[in-house]
Automatic annotation (TrEMBL):
The lineage of its organism: Bacteria, Pseudomonadati, Pseudomonadota, Betaproteobacteria, Burkholderiales. It comes from Ramlibacter rhizophilus. The keyword Oxidoreductase applies. The keyword Oxidoreductase applies. One of its GO terms (molecular function) is oxidoreductase activity. This is FAD-dependent oxidoreductase. Pfam families: DAO (PF01266). Residues 46-410 form the FAD dependent oxidoreductase domain. Keywords: Oxidoreductase. PANTHER family: FAD DEPENDENT OXIDOREDUCTASE DOMAIN-CONTAINING PROTEIN (PTHR13847:SF285), SARCOSINE DEHYDROGENASE-RELATED (PTHR13847). One of its GO terms (cellular component) is cytoplasm.
Protein backbone atom coordinates (compact mmCIF):
# COMPACT_ATOMS: atom_id res chain seq x y z
CA UNK A 1 0.00 0.00 0.00
CA UNK A 2 1.07 3.58 -0.49
CA UNK A 3 0.34 6.57 -2.67
CA UNK A 4 1.82 8.20 -5.76
CA UNK A 5 -0.20 11.37 -6.19
CA UNK A 6 0.69 13.45 -9.20
CA UNK A 7 -0.47 17.07 -8.92
CA UNK A 8 -1.77 19.07 -11.88
CA UNK A 9 0.89 20.92 -13.91
CA UNK A 10 1.32 24.50 -12.66
CA UNK A 11 2.04 27.51 -14.84
CA UNK A 12 5.67 28.20 -15.75
CA UNK A 13 6.06 31.36 -13.68
CA UNK A 14 4.51 30.58 -10.27
CA UNK A 15 5.55 33.97 -8.87
CA UNK A 16 3.64 36.09 -11.40
CA UNK A 17 0.44 37.66 -10.12
CA UNK A 18 -1.22 37.17 -13.51
CA UNK A 19 -4.98 37.34 -13.03
CA UNK A 20 -4.78 37.74 -9.23
CA UNK A 21 -7.88 39.10 -7.53
CA UNK A 22 -8.12 42.75 -6.56
CA UNK A 23 -8.25 41.53 -2.94
CA UNK A 24 -4.87 39.77 -3.20
CA UNK A 25 -3.28 42.77 -4.91
CA UNK A 26 -4.60 45.05 -2.16
CA UNK A 27 -3.27 42.69 0.52
CA UNK A 28 0.18 42.42 -1.07
CA UNK A 29 0.34 46.22 -1.48
CA UNK A 30 -0.28 46.56 2.27
CA UNK A 31 2.67 44.28 3.15
CA UNK A 32 6.33 45.18 3.43
CA UNK A 33 7.91 44.02 0.18
CA UNK A 34 9.95 40.83 0.26
CA UNK A 35 10.60 38.04 -2.19
CA UNK A 36 9.00 34.66 -1.46
CA UNK A 37 11.27 31.76 -0.51
CA UNK A 38 10.87 28.84 -2.91
CA UNK A 39 11.76 25.34 -1.78
CA UNK A 40 15.28 24.46 -2.92
CA UNK A 41 16.98 21.15 -2.24
CA UNK A 42 15.98 18.45 0.18
CA UNK A 43 14.59 19.11 3.65
CA UNK A 44 12.86 17.28 6.53
CA UNK A 45 9.66 18.11 8.45
CA UNK A 46 7.34 16.50 10.94
CA UNK A 47 4.37 17.79 8.97
CA UNK A 48 4.35 19.09 5.40
CA UNK A 49 1.28 21.01 4.27
CA UNK A 50 0.57 21.26 0.54
CA UNK A 51 -1.32 24.51 -0.12
CA UNK A 52 -1.14 27.89 1.62
CA UNK A 53 -4.80 28.87 1.77
CA UNK A 54 -7.03 28.98 4.84
CA UNK A 55 -7.02 25.18 5.28
CA UNK A 56 -3.25 24.92 5.19
CA UNK A 57 -2.56 27.97 7.35
CA UNK A 58 -5.26 27.39 10.00
CA UNK A 59 -4.03 23.81 10.39
CA UNK A 60 -0.40 24.91 10.65
CA UNK A 61 -1.31 27.46 13.32
CA UNK A 62 -3.43 25.04 15.38
CA UNK A 63 -0.70 22.40 15.13
CA UNK A 64 1.85 24.90 16.42
CA UNK A 65 -0.43 25.81 19.35
CA UNK A 66 -0.90 22.15 20.30
CA UNK A 67 2.67 21.03 19.72
CA UNK A 68 5.19 23.90 19.83
CA UNK A 69 8.22 21.74 18.95
CA UNK A 70 6.72 20.33 15.75
CA UNK A 71 8.63 21.12 12.52
CA UNK A 72 5.94 22.35 10.11
CA UNK A 73 6.54 23.25 6.46
CA UNK A 74 3.93 24.80 4.16
CA UNK A 75 4.57 24.43 0.42
CA UNK A 76 2.48 26.74 -1.77
CA UNK A 77 2.44 26.74 -5.57
CA UNK A 78 1.90 30.50 -5.95
CA UNK A 79 1.65 32.91 -3.03
CA UNK A 80 -0.35 32.17 0.12
CA UNK A 81 -3.84 33.39 -0.74
CA UNK A 82 -3.42 32.84 -4.47
CA UNK A 83 -6.21 30.22 -4.37
CA UNK A 84 -9.86 30.57 -3.42
CA UNK A 85 -8.89 31.99 -0.02
CA UNK A 86 -7.63 35.21 -1.59
CA UNK A 87 -10.38 35.46 -4.20
CA UNK A 88 -13.62 34.88 -2.34
CA UNK A 89 -16.32 37.30 -1.31
CA UNK A 90 -15.39 37.25 2.37
CA UNK A 91 -18.71 36.10 3.85
CA UNK A 92 -17.75 34.06 6.91
CA UNK A 93 -20.78 31.90 7.53
CA UNK A 94 -22.19 28.90 9.38
CA UNK A 95 -24.13 25.89 8.14
CA UNK A 96 -27.67 26.83 9.06
CA UNK A 97 -28.47 26.65 5.35
CA UNK A 98 -27.17 23.06 5.31
CA UNK A 99 -29.46 21.98 8.18
CA UNK A 100 -31.84 19.88 6.01
CA UNK A 101 -28.85 17.93 4.61
CA UNK A 102 -27.24 17.51 8.03
CA UNK A 103 -30.49 16.19 9.53
CA UNK A 104 -31.00 13.78 6.64
CA UNK A 105 -27.47 12.40 6.83
CA UNK A 106 -26.74 12.48 10.55
CA UNK A 107 -29.98 12.57 12.51
CA UNK A 108 -30.99 15.33 14.90
CA UNK A 109 -28.39 15.08 17.66
CA UNK A 110 -25.29 14.84 15.48
CA UNK A 111 -26.64 17.31 12.91
CA UNK A 112 -27.04 19.89 15.65
CA UNK A 113 -23.53 19.15 16.92
CA UNK A 114 -22.04 19.91 13.52
CA UNK A 115 -24.23 22.99 13.13
CA UNK A 116 -23.21 24.22 16.57
CA UNK A 117 -19.51 23.75 15.73
CA UNK A 118 -19.99 25.75 12.52
CA UNK A 119 -21.46 28.62 14.55
CA UNK A 120 -18.89 28.52 17.37
CA UNK A 121 -15.95 28.59 14.99
CA UNK A 122 -16.96 32.10 13.92
CA UNK A 123 -16.06 33.35 17.40
CA UNK A 124 -12.81 31.40 17.15
CA UNK A 125 -11.92 33.29 13.96
CA UNK A 126 -12.95 36.64 15.41
CA UNK A 127 -10.83 36.12 18.49
CA UNK A 128 -7.75 35.01 16.50
CA UNK A 129 -8.04 38.10 14.31
CA UNK A 130 -8.31 40.33 17.38
CA UNK A 131 -5.53 38.62 19.32
CA UNK A 132 -3.04 38.93 16.46
CA UNK A 133 -4.07 42.36 15.23
CA UNK A 134 -4.90 41.14 11.71
CA UNK A 135 -6.22 44.12 9.74
CA UNK A 136 -8.72 42.43 7.44
CA UNK A 137 -11.69 44.82 7.44
CA UNK A 138 -13.62 42.55 9.81
CA UNK A 139 -17.18 43.80 10.05
CA UNK A 140 -20.60 42.63 11.13
CA UNK A 141 -23.43 43.48 8.79
CA UNK A 142 -26.98 42.54 8.02
CA UNK A 143 -27.02 39.95 5.27
CA UNK A 144 -30.17 39.16 3.30
CA UNK A 145 -31.05 35.85 1.62
CA UNK A 146 -33.48 37.02 -1.03
CA UNK A 147 -35.51 36.11 -4.07
CA UNK A 148 -34.72 38.20 -7.11
CA UNK A 149 -37.30 36.82 -9.56
CA UNK A 150 -41.05 37.34 -9.29
CA UNK A 151 -42.97 34.37 -7.84
CA UNK A 152 -39.75 32.59 -6.88
CA UNK A 153 -39.76 30.42 -3.77
CA UNK A 154 -37.21 31.44 -1.15
CA UNK A 155 -34.34 28.96 -0.95
CA UNK A 156 -34.42 29.40 2.83
CA UNK A 157 -37.75 27.58 3.18
CA UNK A 158 -36.32 24.04 3.59
CA UNK A 159 -34.05 25.40 6.34
CA UNK A 160 -37.01 26.87 8.25
CA UNK A 161 -38.98 23.64 7.87
CA UNK A 162 -36.05 21.52 9.03
CA UNK A 163 -35.40 23.86 11.95
CA UNK A 164 -39.01 23.64 13.04
CA UNK A 165 -38.93 19.84 12.88
CA UNK A 166 -35.70 19.80 14.92
CA UNK A 167 -37.04 22.31 17.44
CA UNK A 168 -34.37 24.96 16.81
CA UNK A 169 -34.55 28.57 15.65
CA UNK A 170 -32.41 29.93 12.79
CA UNK A 171 -30.79 33.34 13.19
CA UNK A 172 -32.78 34.68 10.22
CA UNK A 173 -35.96 36.75 10.37
CA UNK A 174 -38.51 37.06 7.60
CA UNK A 175 -38.63 40.55 6.09
CA UNK A 176 -41.97 42.21 5.47
CA UNK A 177 -42.73 43.68 2.01
CA UNK A 178 -42.28 47.16 3.54
CA UNK A 179 -38.86 46.24 4.92
CA UNK A 180 -37.87 44.78 1.54
CA UNK A 181 -38.84 48.04 -0.16
CA UNK A 182 -37.00 50.07 2.44
CA UNK A 183 -33.81 48.05 1.97
CA UNK A 184 -33.87 47.48 -1.78
CA UNK A 185 -35.95 50.35 -3.18
CA UNK A 186 -36.99 49.66 -6.77
CA UNK A 187 -34.32 46.99 -7.38
CA UNK A 188 -35.76 43.55 -8.23
CA UNK A 189 -35.79 41.96 -4.77
CA UNK A 190 -39.11 40.30 -3.97
CA UNK A 191 -38.82 38.59 -0.59
CA UNK A 192 -36.09 37.75 1.86
CA UNK A 193 -34.84 36.76 5.28
CA UNK A 194 -32.28 38.84 7.14
CA UNK A 195 -29.47 37.79 9.41
CA UNK A 196 -28.01 40.54 11.58
CA UNK A 197 -24.37 40.50 12.62
CA UNK A 198 -23.20 38.38 9.67
CA UNK A 199 -19.41 38.37 9.54
CA UNK A 200 -17.43 39.68 6.58
CA UNK A 201 -13.74 40.23 5.95
CA UNK A 202 -11.44 41.15 3.10
CA UNK A 203 -10.33 37.53 2.64
CA UNK A 204 -6.87 38.09 1.15
CA UNK A 205 -5.97 40.40 4.05
CA UNK A 206 -7.02 37.63 6.43
CA UNK A 207 -5.13 34.84 4.69
CA UNK A 208 -1.99 36.98 4.39
CA UNK A 209 -2.43 37.90 8.07
CA UNK A 210 -2.48 34.20 8.98
CA UNK A 211 0.65 33.77 6.90
CA UNK A 212 2.36 36.57 8.84
CA UNK A 213 1.50 34.95 12.19
CA UNK A 214 2.55 31.50 10.93
CA UNK A 215 5.94 32.81 9.79
CA UNK A 216 6.42 34.60 13.13
CA UNK A 217 5.67 31.30 14.90
CA UNK A 218 8.51 29.57 13.06
CA UNK A 219 6.40 27.70 10.52
CA UNK A 220 8.49 27.40 7.34
CA UNK A 221 6.63 28.73 4.32
CA UNK A 222 7.87 28.04 0.80
CA UNK A 223 5.89 29.95 -1.82
CA UNK A 224 6.22 29.79 -5.63
CA UNK A 225 6.90 26.06 -5.18
CA UNK A 226 4.33 23.93 -7.00
CA UNK A 227 4.26 20.38 -5.65
CA UNK A 228 4.53 17.85 -8.44
CA UNK A 229 4.34 14.52 -6.60
CA UNK A 230 3.44 13.11 -3.19
CA UNK A 231 4.81 9.60 -2.74
CA UNK A 232 4.83 7.10 0.12
CA UNK A 233 8.18 5.78 1.29
CA UNK A 234 8.61 3.24 4.07
CA UNK A 235 9.46 5.77 6.81
CA UNK A 236 8.33 9.11 5.39
CA UNK A 237 6.09 10.69 2.79
CA UNK A 238 8.00 12.50 0.03
CA UNK A 239 6.66 15.81 -1.28
CA UNK A 240 8.43 16.85 -4.47
CA UNK A 241 8.49 20.29 -6.07
CA UNK A 242 10.25 21.44 -9.24
CA UNK A 243 13.45 22.28 -7.37
CA UNK A 244 13.18 20.58 -4.01
CA UNK A 245 11.73 17.90 -1.81
CA UNK A 246 10.34 17.63 1.73
CA UNK A 247 10.45 14.29 3.55
CA UNK A 248 7.79 14.41 6.23
CA UNK A 249 6.28 12.06 8.79
CA UNK A 250 2.84 13.31 7.83
CA UNK A 251 1.41 15.33 4.97
CA UNK A 252 -1.73 17.42 4.69
CA UNK A 253 -3.26 17.87 1.24
CA UNK A 254 -4.76 21.36 1.41
CA UNK A 255 -4.79 22.21 -2.30
CA UNK A 256 -8.58 22.51 -2.56
CA UNK A 257 -9.95 22.08 -6.10
CA UNK A 258 -6.41 21.67 -7.46
CA UNK A 259 -6.34 18.17 -5.96
CA UNK A 260 -9.87 17.17 -6.99
CA UNK A 261 -8.50 15.30 -10.04
CA UNK A 262 -6.78 12.78 -7.74
CA UNK A 263 -8.32 9.32 -7.66
CA UNK A 264 -9.37 9.36 -3.99
CA UNK A 265 -11.45 12.53 -4.50
CA UNK A 266 -12.66 12.52 -8.09
CA UNK A 267 -15.87 10.50 -7.60
CA UNK A 268 -17.10 12.85 -4.85
CA UNK A 269 -16.00 16.29 -6.02
CA UNK A 270 -16.98 18.26 -9.13
CA UNK A 271 -15.04 21.43 -9.86
CA UNK A 272 -16.96 24.46 -11.10
CA UNK A 273 -16.03 28.12 -11.11
CA UNK A 274 -17.34 31.02 -9.11
CA UNK A 275 -16.90 34.33 -10.90
CA UNK A 276 -16.78 37.85 -9.50
CA UNK A 277 -16.83 41.48 -10.61
CA UNK A 278 -16.01 44.55 -8.51
CA UNK A 279 -16.86 48.14 -9.38
CA UNK A 280 -14.68 51.19 -9.09
CA UNK A 281 -15.07 52.95 -5.72
CA UNK A 282 -18.31 54.97 -5.65
CA UNK A 283 -18.67 55.95 -1.97
CA UNK A 284 -20.75 59.05 -2.75
CA UNK A 285 -23.21 57.08 -4.85
CA UNK A 286 -23.52 54.40 -2.14
CA UNK A 287 -24.35 57.14 0.35
CA UNK A 288 -27.48 58.12 -1.58
CA UNK A 289 -30.76 57.32 0.25
CA UNK A 290 -31.76 54.55 -2.20
CA UNK A 291 -28.46 52.68 -1.67
CA UNK A 292 -27.39 53.58 1.85
CA UNK A 293 -29.34 50.76 3.49
CA UNK A 294 -28.88 48.15 0.74
CA UNK A 295 -27.49 45.02 2.43
CA UNK A 296 -25.27 42.39 0.85
CA UNK A 297 -26.20 38.73 0.79
CA UNK A 298 -27.20 35.93 -1.53
CA UNK A 299 -30.25 35.20 -3.64
CA UNK A 300 -32.23 32.00 -4.24
CA UNK A 301 -30.94 31.09 -7.70
CA UNK A 302 -29.31 27.71 -8.18
CA UNK A 303 -26.44 29.59 -9.85
CA UNK A 304 -26.57 31.84 -6.87
CA UNK A 305 -25.52 35.48 -6.80
CA UNK A 306 -23.68 36.90 -3.83
CA UNK A 307 -23.00 40.59 -3.35
CA UNK A 308 -21.90 43.25 -0.93
CA UNK A 309 -19.99 46.48 -0.52
CA UNK A 310 -16.46 47.22 0.60
CA UNK A 311 -15.29 49.82 3.13
CA UNK A 312 -13.81 51.88 0.25
CA UNK A 313 -17.21 52.11 -1.43
CA UNK A 314 -17.11 49.43 -4.10
CA UNK A 315 -19.88 46.96 -4.92
CA UNK A 316 -19.00 43.37 -5.72
CA UNK A 317 -21.20 40.75 -7.29
CA UNK A 318 -20.41 37.08 -7.81
CA UNK A 319 -22.12 33.99 -9.15
CA UNK A 320 -21.56 30.30 -8.51
CA UNK A 321 -21.86 27.41 -10.97
CA UNK A 322 -19.88 28.99 -13.82
CA UNK A 323 -17.36 26.94 -15.82
CA UNK A 324 -17.32 23.19 -15.41
CA UNK A 325 -13.93 21.46 -15.25
CA UNK A 326 -13.39 18.47 -17.52
CA UNK A 327 -12.01 15.62 -15.39
CA UNK A 328 -11.61 18.12 -12.52
CA UNK A 329 -8.63 19.68 -14.35
CA UNK A 330 -8.23 23.38 -13.69
CA UNK A 331 -7.46 25.55 -16.71
CA UNK A 332 -6.81 29.27 -17.08
CA UNK A 333 -10.55 30.06 -17.12
CA UNK A 334 -10.57 29.26 -13.39
CA UNK A 335 -8.39 32.33 -12.79
CA UNK A 336 -10.40 34.70 -14.97
CA UNK A 337 -13.13 33.75 -17.42
CA UNK A 338 -14.15 36.83 -19.44
CA UNK A 339 -17.35 35.15 -20.68
CA UNK A 340 -18.56 34.19 -17.20
CA UNK A 341 -17.48 37.51 -15.71
CA UNK A 342 -19.44 39.37 -18.43
CA UNK A 343 -22.55 37.41 -17.39
CA UNK A 344 -21.93 38.32 -13.75
CA UNK A 345 -21.63 41.96 -14.80
CA UNK A 346 -25.10 41.65 -16.35
CA UNK A 347 -26.33 40.29 -13.01
CA UNK A 348 -24.78 43.32 -11.32
CA UNK A 349 -26.57 45.72 -13.68
CA UNK A 350 -29.85 43.84 -13.09
CA UNK A 351 -29.63 43.68 -9.30
CA UNK A 352 -28.08 47.13 -8.86
CA UNK A 353 -29.83 49.20 -11.56
CA UNK A 354 -28.55 52.34 -9.82
CA UNK A 355 -24.98 51.41 -10.84
CA UNK A 356 -25.72 51.35 -14.56
CA UNK A 357 -23.00 53.88 -15.36
CA UNK A 358 -20.39 52.66 -12.87
CA UNK A 359 -17.47 50.82 -14.48
CA UNK A 360 -16.35 47.38 -13.38
CA UNK A 361 -12.79 47.82 -12.14
CA UNK A 362 -11.78 44.20 -11.71
CA UNK A 363 -13.09 40.71 -12.48
CA UNK A 364 -11.80 37.26 -11.67
CA UNK A 365 -12.78 33.63 -11.21
CA UNK A 366 -11.91 30.84 -8.83
CA UNK A 367 -12.49 27.11 -8.51
CA UNK A 368 -15.08 25.55 -6.20
CA UNK A 369 -14.60 22.01 -4.84
CA UNK A 370 -18.28 21.11 -4.87
CA UNK A 371 -18.93 17.88 -2.98
CA UNK A 372 -21.85 15.49 -3.42
CA UNK A 373 -23.46 16.72 -0.18
CA UNK A 374 -22.18 20.33 -0.24
CA UNK A 375 -20.37 19.46 3.02
CA UNK A 376 -16.59 19.06 3.43
CA UNK A 377 -14.71 15.98 4.58
CA UNK A 378 -11.60 15.79 6.70
CA UNK A 379 -9.76 12.49 6.70
CA UNK A 380 -6.69 10.42 5.94
CA UNK A 381 -6.18 8.30 2.84
CA UNK A 382 -6.92 4.58 3.12
CA UNK A 383 -3.75 3.81 1.09
CA UNK A 384 -1.51 5.77 3.46
CA UNK A 385 -2.96 7.12 6.70
CA UNK A 386 -0.02 9.54 7.02
CA UNK A 387 -1.58 11.57 4.21
CA UNK A 388 -4.43 13.74 5.52
CA UNK A 389 -6.80 15.89 3.51
CA UNK A 390 -9.63 18.41 3.59
CA UNK A 391 -11.90 18.86 0.61
CA UNK A 392 -15.48 19.64 -0.39
CA UNK A 393 -16.12 23.10 1.08
CA UNK A 394 -18.49 23.71 -1.83
CA UNK A 395 -18.15 27.50 -1.81
CA UNK A 396 -18.60 27.82 1.99
CA UNK A 397 -15.05 27.51 3.21
CA UNK A 398 -14.45 30.71 5.16
CA UNK A 399 -15.75 29.34 8.44
CA UNK A 400 -15.32 25.67 7.59
CA UNK A 401 -11.58 25.93 6.93
CA UNK A 402 -11.05 27.30 10.45
CA UNK A 403 -13.05 24.36 11.80
CA UNK A 404 -11.00 22.14 9.50
CA UNK A 405 -7.80 23.56 10.98
CA UNK A 406 -8.83 22.37 14.45
CA UNK A 407 -10.06 18.98 13.20
CA UNK A 408 -6.97 18.31 11.08
CA UNK A 409 -4.51 19.40 13.77
CA UNK A 410 -6.08 16.93 16.21
CA UNK A 411 -6.19 14.23 13.55
CA UNK A 412 -2.53 14.71 12.60
CA UNK A 413 -1.49 14.60 16.27
CA UNK A 414 -3.62 11.46 16.70
CA UNK A 415 -5.56 12.94 19.57
CA UNK A 416 -9.00 11.79 20.60
CA UNK A 417 -11.05 14.89 21.31
CA UNK A 418 -14.14 16.83 20.27
CA UNK A 419 -12.49 17.68 16.92
CA UNK A 420 -11.66 14.12 15.92
CA UNK A 421 -15.21 13.17 16.92
CA UNK A 422 -16.44 15.87 14.56
CA UNK A 423 -14.21 14.46 11.81
CA UNK A 424 -16.01 11.14 12.20
CA UNK A 425 -19.37 12.86 11.82
CA UNK A 426 -18.20 14.51 8.59
CA UNK A 427 -17.08 11.10 7.36
CA UNK A 428 -20.43 9.59 8.24
CA UNK A 429 -22.21 12.37 6.36
CA UNK A 430 -20.46 11.51 3.10
CA UNK A 431 -22.83 10.09 0.55
CA UNK A 432 -23.42 9.96 -3.17
CA UNK A 433 -21.02 10.16 -6.10
CA UNK A 434 -20.68 11.82 -9.47
CA UNK A 435 -20.47 9.75 -12.67
CA UNK A 436 -17.12 9.45 -14.48
CA UNK A 437 -16.17 11.40 -17.60
CA UNK A 438 -17.43 11.99 -20.22
CA UNK A 439 -20.90 11.49 -18.70
CA UNK A 440 -20.21 13.91 -15.85
CA UNK A 441 -19.14 16.79 -18.09
CA UNK A 442 -21.97 16.30 -20.57
CA UNK A 443 -24.65 15.87 -17.89
CA UNK A 444 -23.35 18.90 -15.97
CA UNK A 445 -23.63 21.06 -19.10
CA UNK A 446 -27.14 19.83 -19.95
CA UNK A 447 -28.28 20.55 -16.38
CA UNK A 448 -26.50 23.89 -16.20
CA UNK A 449 -27.96 25.10 -19.50
CA UNK A 450 -31.45 24.04 -18.42
CA UNK A 451 -30.92 25.93 -15.15
CA UNK A 452 -29.96 29.09 -17.05
CA UNK A 453 -33.06 28.78 -19.30
CA UNK A 454 -35.32 28.15 -16.29
CA UNK A 455 -33.87 31.15 -14.45
CA UNK A 456 -34.30 33.37 -17.49
CA UNK A 457 -37.97 32.32 -17.77
CA UNK A 458 -38.47 33.06 -14.06
CA UNK A 459 -36.79 36.44 -14.43
CA UNK A 460 -39.23 37.31 -17.21
CA UNK A 461 -42.13 36.23 -14.97
CA UNK A 462 -42.85 33.24 -17.25
CA UNK A 463 -43.28 29.57 -16.43
CA UNK A 464 -40.17 27.55 -17.36
CA UNK A 465 -40.63 24.52 -19.62
CA UNK A 466 -41.32 21.31 -17.71
CA UNK A 467 -38.16 19.69 -19.06
CA UNK A 468 -35.96 22.61 -18.01
CA UNK A 469 -37.57 22.64 -14.56
CA UNK A 470 -36.93 18.90 -14.14
CA UNK A 471 -33.35 19.08 -15.36
CA UNK A 472 -32.60 22.15 -13.24
CA UNK A 473 -33.89 20.30 -10.17
CA UNK A 474 -31.01 17.84 -10.66
CA UNK A 475 -28.43 20.61 -10.26
CA UNK A 476 -27.77 20.04 -6.58
CA UNK A 477 -27.97 16.25 -6.62
CA UNK A 478 -25.55 13.37 -7.04
CA UNK A 479 -25.97 9.63 -7.61
CA UNK A 480 -26.86 7.55 -4.55
CA UNK A 481 -24.01 5.64 -2.89
CA UNK A 482 -24.05 1.97 -3.85
CA UNK A 483 -20.93 -0.14 -3.73
CA UNK A 484 -18.53 2.75 -4.37
CA UNK A 485 -15.09 2.53 -2.79
CA UNK A 486 -14.35 5.46 -0.50
CA UNK A 487 -10.99 7.16 0.01
C1 LIG B 1 -15.05 33.44 -6.19
C2 LIG B 1 -15.23 32.69 -4.90
C3 LIG B 1 -16.07 33.21 -3.92
C4 LIG B 1 -16.22 32.53 -2.70
N1 LIG B 1 -16.96 33.12 -1.71
C5 LIG B 1 -16.99 32.55 -0.49
C6 LIG B 1 -17.63 33.20 0.59
O1 LIG B 1 -18.09 34.34 0.48
N2 LIG B 1 -17.70 32.55 1.78
C7 LIG B 1 -17.16 31.32 1.96
O2 LIG B 1 -17.28 30.76 3.06
N3 LIG B 1 -16.49 30.70 0.97
C8 LIG B 1 -16.38 31.28 -0.24
N4 LIG B 1 -15.68 30.67 -1.24
C9 LIG B 1 -15.01 29.39 -0.95
C10 LIG B 1 -13.73 29.59 -0.13
O3 LIG B 1 -12.96 30.59 -0.71
C11 LIG B 1 -12.93 28.28 -0.09
O4 LIG B 1 -13.76 27.23 0.35
C12 LIG B 1 -11.74 28.36 0.83
O5 LIG B 1 -10.96 29.49 0.56
C13 LIG B 1 -10.89 27.10 0.67
O6 LIG B 1 -9.66 27.28 1.30
P1 LIG B 1 -8.50 26.26 1.01
O7 LIG B 1 -7.33 26.68 1.78
O8 LIG B 1 -8.98 24.87 1.21
O9 LIG B 1 -8.24 26.40 -0.55
P2 LIG B 1 -7.40 27.50 -1.37
O10 LIG B 1 -7.48 28.83 -0.78
O11 LIG B 1 -7.80 27.35 -2.79
O12 LIG B 1 -5.93 27.02 -1.16
C14 LIG B 1 -5.36 25.96 -1.87
C15 LIG B 1 -3.96 26.38 -2.18
O13 LIG B 1 -3.27 25.28 -2.77
C16 LIG B 1 -2.37 25.81 -3.71
N5 LIG B 1 -1.97 24.74 -4.61
C17 LIG B 1 -2.67 24.21 -5.64
N6 LIG B 1 -1.94 23.27 -6.25
C18 LIG B 1 -0.76 23.20 -5.59
C19 LIG B 1 0.42 22.44 -5.77
N7 LIG B 1 0.56 21.57 -6.76
N8 LIG B 1 1.45 22.64 -4.92
C20 LIG B 1 1.34 23.54 -3.89
N9 LIG B 1 0.25 24.29 -3.69
C21 LIG B 1 -0.79 24.12 -4.53
C22 LIG B 1 -3.14 26.94 -4.38
O14 LIG B 1 -2.29 27.87 -5.00
C23 LIG B 1 -3.90 27.52 -3.20
O15 LIG B 1 -3.23 28.63 -2.64
C24 LIG B 1 -15.55 31.30 -2.48
C25 LIG B 1 -14.73 30.77 -3.47
C26 LIG B 1 -14.56 31.46 -4.67
C27 LIG B 1 -13.65 30.88 -5.72
Amino acid sequence: MGVQLRMQPWRKDPGSLGQASLWLRQALDAEPSGAPTPLQGSTRADVCIVGGGFTGLWTALRLRELSPALEITVVEAGLCGWGASGRNSGAVGHWWGRLPTLLRLLGREDALRVLDASVKVLEDIRSFIGMHGIECQLREETSVWSTTYPNQLGAWMPMFKAAEAAGVTPPHRLLTPEEMRELFGAAPYYSGVAEDGAMRVQPALLVRGLRRVAAAWGIRIHETSPVTLIASEPHVVRVETRHGCVRADQVLLAANAWMAHLKPFKPYIAVTSSDMVVTAPVPRLLDRPELRRRPGGVNSRTLLNYSGTTPDGRVYMGRGGGSIAWDNRIGAQFDADPRMCAQVEQDLRYLYPELREVPVASAWSGPIDRSTTLLPWFGALAEDARVHYAIGYSGHGMGATALGGRVLASQILQRTDEWTELAMLFMRARSGWFPPEPIRYLAAHVIRNATVRRDEALRMGQAPSRLDARLAALALTSLPTRGVARP
